[in-house]
Amino acid sequence: MATQMILAVLNALSMGMAIFLVAAGITLIFGLLKILNMAQGAFFMIGAYLAFSIIGHQQLSLPAFIGVALLAGLAVGLLGLLTDRLILSRLRHVDYHYMLIATFALMMICHGVVKVIWGVNFFSVLPPKGLDQPLQLGTIYLSRYSVFVIAAGLVIYAILEIAIHRLWVGKLMQSLASKPWMCALLGINVSLGLTLSVMFAFFLAGLAGGLMLPLQSLSPQLGDAYLLYGFFAIIIGGLGNIRGAMLGAILLGLVNSLNTILLPQWPGIAIYVVLAVFLFFRPEGLFPSLAAQPEDSSDQNEASMSGPASHRKNWFRVGSLLFMVALSLPFWADGGLLYVAGSAVVYALFALSWNILFGYTGLASFGHAAFFAIGAYFTGVILRDWPQVPFLLILLGCGVAGAMVAGLLGALALRRLAGIFLAVLTIALAEVTRLLISYSDFLGREDGLVGIPRPVLDGLGIDLSQSAAYYWFLLVAVALLIGALWWILHGRFGRVLLITRQDPDRAAFLGVNVIRVRTMSFMLSGAVAAIAGGLYAPWARIVTLEQVSFLASTQPVLNAMLGGVHSFWGPLIGAGIFAALEYGTRTFVGLSEMMMGALLLLIILAAPNGVIGLWRAYALARRGGAEGRKEGGVKPAEKSSRRLVDGHSQS
Amino acid sequence: MDILKVDRVCKSYGALQVLKQVSLSVSQGSIFAIIGPNGAGKTTLFKVMTGESPANGGSVWFHGEDITSAPAHRRARAGIGRTFQVARVFNDFSVRENVIAAVEARRRNQRQSLGRWWAIKPDSAVVSEAEALIDEIGLGGSEEVAARFLSHGDRKRLEFVIALALQPRLLMLDEPTAGMSPADRLGIAELIVRIRDRLGVTVVMTEHDMDIVFKLADRVLVLNYGEVVVTGTVEEIRGNPAVQEVYLGKEVLHA
Amino acid sequence: MLEVRDLNAFYGDAHILHDVALQVEAGQRVALLGRNGAGKSTFLKSVMNAGPGVNGSVRFEGKNLGNLPSYQRARLGIALVPEDRQIIPHLSVLENIAMASHARAGRPALTPRQIVEHFSMLEPLVKRYGGQLSGGQQQLLAIARAFAGGPKLLFLDEPTEGLAPIIVQGMVDEILDICANNGTALLLCEQNIWFSRACTDYVYIIDTGKLVFHGDWRAFDANPEITQRYLSV
To answer: What is the mean pLDDT of residues A148-167?
Structure first.
């Protein structure tokens, strides 16, 4: 028994060290740039794969093994240079949500690249020579490799602590983080300093990937788990400090170890419970740090680019025409095209639900697929097992379920540092949803729900089992929902959301309960996403775990960004364009993660206001300076990246 | 009657004690100014009263109600309006939309009618109330201008309109003339007096500009190193040797 | 030493400075007066290439600065003490001063210790963190810090703003002394005429982004309507 306990603790600590190394990188970048790097886990994974490519199936000596890990670290550090120069440095002065989305896109690209280069198979690597034998202490045998991992983690921790708090380089970095503008005036090359720090954080990720390689088998899912655990560790420890990250990581390692011993049939669940408890009782973490307080954003020349009201009639005609074309689709399109069109209609609603949160409330969800999946599984199960339940009632149930889950999550996430916590917690929600579904026979585990029957609208006696009939139903239902959302978002509630997004402190001093408004917006968003999922299940007739993947969560973000987040109609247009692209390039399957990530990144860097933003800039330029001046001196955007946070169209 | 009472408030950041047992009371309808050298704790005291950063010890009372730990929106609903040192308005909205948002917020706070529940556009009563306020403060003619394009002085004015739309009983002004030209400063000073006289609003302000303070304030509190040096009328403050020592120096210098 | 010609500065679409021309000779002490919002800070930031978009020519010691980034301008020997002081809160007073030695670029400069000895008010505070100082102490530290880089030209942006008059009086001698000892030229942006007169011997006046007057203090006094019109005391 004692042996078992010691082994468990040893495992816990070695896992904790791996988490710490990822968390330390995240914390460093957060402290410096005030952003969460969502790609940190992916670069940990790339470090591991790089080390695997060198080592293969041979067994190295300890120095050679450490050398390989250092090499992997250096290679990932160079990727950090590339990342900083191409992406991060361009987004330094805009709303941090764009940076979050950019690193999210980068993560998707990394996943794609890993799958293309190394495939989806599992690999494993032997510990170096001398560490593969157990260490005997009396009657107890310990894994030498685990001891090595723990020692390595502690050494790196010590080096970081000393460098940050004792050495000049650490003071320099802290100064760069808190007063970059002044540091430049003191003769410090700020952009070089930030780049070097980012490279160092990436180096840590790569090094950790190499050192921890024999700890577990290697697969493209490796990064996701460590990313989440890394995030959790810094939330528990307190954002932006190394000691907290260490304690948080060890705590998570212990919790996970206990989980495996006490609840072997539910692996990986306890960590989420601990996180929720922490967020509820100690949301500021173990070591609250000043660095975690968001800096007041530098005031830029933001331009409001509201569309002219006179054009609204034309747009109405275009919209009606498109709706007519969509209605006529079943008469002339083949089954493939109809399927893509129907899915696009659902994804348009899904994207709109995401943008209620982002465009109207200023919060980003990175696990929105969880709500979609909740709706889809809910509908799928009821249609399969209780076909007598009226379909509209099921959809209503989806909405209620989505709103309730969002309400619970909001209660945890929206109390402090709303944006960052919500980002992490929504990812966690998607992950825990995926885990729970994969453990449930009732929900079909890895296989999903297959052969979901299409419903009959009882009261009206309309049979929706044919594709065309269900497609028409989809179209009408989504149109009605969009109409309702338009009404909600353009009326009084929309105005409250918009003032909360623009300046939450000011809004609070008008008597607006900001937390409640944000929670309500999140609940509305979750409800709509779940209803979209509910509509989707009978259309696709199959629902699988893929509906909860990161890829699925990227879909609404991409669609909304593509169309333009500062317009009600942007997400719908984005969904349409994306569906057309997908239909046009359907031969390129397998590259999807890379393509989606790259496309998202491209939009953020080149056209952050999406298609509608481009259109407005074009229209403004065409109308010429005179009229533009009258509206307050807006010139067409010369550098769109400077105008990320432009105004909301009130029309 | 005292509308606002601060009772032995303390505040520290880590080891640094910024406020030490600060007490004050503000009577209904008066203008109360808080002055002191930079770093004396004025801003912290202000934040304790507005609820941005709650006190570590002591209590804050508004109309006989303990609001020491009430969040910002509660204070706003109870009738405390405020402006920020750097005016904060809704940049994407036009001047009119800004004030409409504030009027709607007030009506919601006071459970007054907001018009028909299904209406998209704001109720005509709300709009006309907003426009009357805009005219009153002298922003008429710029209703359609997006707030981000207003001049510094006009942004300050717009913030006043927003605060007044709440029909506050107490108006808290954080350095209302900071960063303004002398002419604009006078304009704001007149505005403050007018608000008090016409609407009977009590005003609490922090201010650097001694001319403004001496001209407006009924009572002045002098803060130094987080402690109250003295509270009194303008005459008492001017004559007080302790104040001369810490704040004004040997002779009052003018720019 | 510093020669600015046809300088135009922009924040986004807003045109802040119009064709500004200004010179500072080696060791000279110059004041730039103007109301709030007249463009004083924008001018200093433009010369440092630290914020506004800039057109026009800025020459320092005969060299055209072009698009040189601000950290390299600092290393050439121009030190800006900004209005809001920008003290690094989690570094001690001594460390704050030492941070500026990155701008030294091989020039001889006072050590942080020597600088603290000169600014006697800072001496008892050396171990304090920047964030724990009062406004006046921070202002003094910001000026002291600039000297760790061995500057040839010092820009002071409204050093008296928000300071008690008693501190302002003490500051005059300290600034004059250290500038003279190090042969540092001074460009002082101010609204406080008394302080400017005590510190400098040449005046520029700026109003809504345009220079409207330059001359020595005698010329300034000979034109009382300038004060009336542009500085409105």
So the answer is: 92
Cβ–Cβ contact C86 with B under 8 A = no
Query: Cα dist. A325→A195, A247, A349, A577 in Å?
Result: 51, 59, 18, 15
Q: Is C218 on the interface with B (CB under 8 A)?
A: no
CB of A508 within 8 Å of any CB in chain B? yes
Kindly list the partner chains of chain A, i.e. chains with 3 or more CB atom pairs below 8 Å.
Answer: B, C
| pLDDT at position C144 | 93
B73: CATH: 3.40.50.300
Strand (E) or helix (H) holding C195: helix C193-199
Is B156 part of a structural domain of the chain? Answer: no
Q: Does C164 touch chain A (CB under 8 A)?
A: no
Domain count, chain B: 2
CB pairs under 8 A between B and C: 57
Dist. CA A271–CA B9, nearest whole Å: 41
Domain limits for position B100: 90-149
Task: Decide which of A108 and A81 is more confident.
Answer: A81
pLDDT, tens digit, for every residue of A487-499? 999 989 999 999 9
Does A172 contact chain C (CB < 8 Å)? yes
Show residues of chain A in contact with B149, CB under 8 Å: 632-633
Q: Backbone dihedral region of A466: left (phi > 0), alpha (psi from -120 to 50 degrees) or beta?
A: beta
At residue B162 the predicted structure's pLDDT band, cuts being 50, 70 and 90, is very high
Q: Are residues B63 and B189 in the same domain?
A: yes
Compute the count of residue pairs across chains A and C with CB atoms less than 8 Å apart.
70
User: Residue A554 — pLDDT band, cuts 50, 70, 90?
Assistant: confident
Quickly tell me which residue has 């704050």 as its tokens.
C96
Q: Are residues B71 and B37 in the same domain?
A: yes
Residue B234 domain-assigned? yes
* CATH class given for the domain over A329-583: mainly alpha
Is the CB of residue A512 less than 8 Å away from at least one CB of chain B?
yes
Q: Which amino acid is at A9?
A: V
Option in B39, B152, B183 nearest C134 (CB):
B39
CATH topology of domain A2-289: ABC transporter involved in vitamin B12 uptake, BtuC (1.10.3470)
Confidence of residue B248 (pLDDT cuts 50, 70, 90): low
- Domain limits, CATH 1.10.3470, in chain A: 2-289, 329-583
Q: Give the Cα separation of A639 and A302 in Å (integer).
A: 11
For residue C165, give the chain B residue with the closest CA: B249
C-alpha radius of gyration, chain C, whole number: 17
Looking at the structure, do residues B78 and B109 belong to the same domain, yes or no? no
Cα angle: A503, vertex A302, B161; to 5 degrees: 45
Report the DSSP beta bridge partners of residue C216.
Answer: C202
Same domain, B119 and B175: no
User: Which residue of chain A is at minimal alpha-carbon distance from C92?
Assistant: A171
Nearest CA in chain C to B15: C132
Put simply, the answer to whether B106 touches A491 (Cβ < 8 Å) is: no
Q: What was the pLDDT predicted at A295?
A: 36
Inspect the interface and report whether the beta carbons of C194 and B40 lie closer than 8 Å.
Answer: no
Question: Which residue on chain C is closest to B255 by alpha carbon?
Answer: C192
**For tokens 């810090």, what's the residue?**
C145
- pLDDT reading at B1 higher than 90: no
Q: Taking CB atoms and an 8 Å limit, are B38 and C165 in contact across chains?
A: no
Q: Does C163 touch chain B (CB under 8 A)?
A: yes
Say yes or no: A161 contacts chain B, CB-CB below 8 A: no
Question: Is B142 found in the same domain as B98?
Answer: yes
**Amino acid identity, position A164:** I
For C45, the token pair is 């930031």
ipTM above 0.90, yes or no: yes
Confidence of residue A59 (pLDDT cuts 50, 70, 90): confident
User: Nearest by CB to A188, which of C11, C13, C71?
Assistant: C71
What is the spatial distance between Cα A538 and Cα A553, in angstroms, rounded to a whole number? 20
Q: Is C4 on the interface with A (CB under 8 A)?
A: no
